[in-house]
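ugh ok so i messed up the first submission bc i forgot one of the chains. this is the corrected input, ALL of the components this time, i swear. 328 residues overall. if the numbers dont match what u have on ur side tell me asap before i send this to the collaborators (the ones from the other lab, u know who)
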Amino acid sequence: MAELKTNFHGTWVDRITCKQFVESVTDYFENKLTAVDRTSFEAHLAECSGCPTHLEQMRTTIASLGKLTNGLPELHPKARKELLAVYRKWKAHS
Amino acid sequence: MYIGQVLSERQSNDNFATDPPLDSDNQLVEALREGDERAFAQLLDKYHGSMIRVATLYCRDEQVAEDATQETWLAILNGIHQFEGRSTLKTWIFSILSNKAKTRGQRERRSVPFSQLVDLETDQNDPALPEEFFNSADSDADWIGWWHKDNHPTAWQNIPETTAFISEMRTKLETALMTLPHMQGQVIYFRDVLGYESQEICNILNLSETNQRVLLHRARSKVRLALEQYFNEV
Ligand SMILES: [Zn+2]
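and heres the new structure output, hopefully the right one now
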């Protein structure tokens, strides 16, 4: 598959397929690609018609997940009271 | 009416609500050991909500998740004198929770033991996208342009900012999270929802860095796919 090289900003880098690109997205975000693989990734990103959109959607997905913390379940006052009572009991016994 | 009730109950409960929070782990642990209720209340308010969510991702049942979380608080109190600070307090709390949730979840579901879950969820062939999303190798695609014409990504445009849409999207995301395999669900929840560092997640869930990343990638890919299906319908 990635036997051919492509010229990217004056250096010859390995070509990766769209499938390889898609599988590398998290490694790319988490900065876990080697310098060489990162260049291949960026070369593909610069040329492909579909992968940049896919990458953008992965970004949107992560950003949307980050907004979910706004709706965390609140501790019900009754449960809170009970847990604080548990703490007092624990305190008395320790 | 109900909200007012909740508020007044809170205010009368917390005569320590106006005190400055204890910010370091050391301060909190010390205060807890000494019986300072304010420290315990602070931990409850800070972590209880996310603990319930994490436990639910594992147990798949709100009530079981509540029980696992309650059990965790007890374990925290019983273990606080032995806490040595080798991990952060947060990591310690969530690793206890994760163990309680696993035990509970397994007891209820009689499912695959945890040790096998990680192997299952990282080993099996589980591409980020189904095979049919790409052209086959004998097509004339060279290195770019492998996307099958029916599945070529199209930008998610005009995402409305209306409240109705936002809450609908939230529901979609939460459903997507709940349908992920257990370990994938927990990893993505810690990383992308709660924003924990990868290293913390490895410590909490007892995962290697590589496995953590594989689980995260698979989880993100699945959630993206769920959103894509949603946007295609909108
Ligand atoms: Zn591509």
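quick check: Chain B touches chain A through 58 residues (CB under 8 Å). that seems consistent at least. The pocket of zinc ion is lined by residues A 18, 21, 44, 48, 50-51; B 144, 146 (CB under 6 Å).
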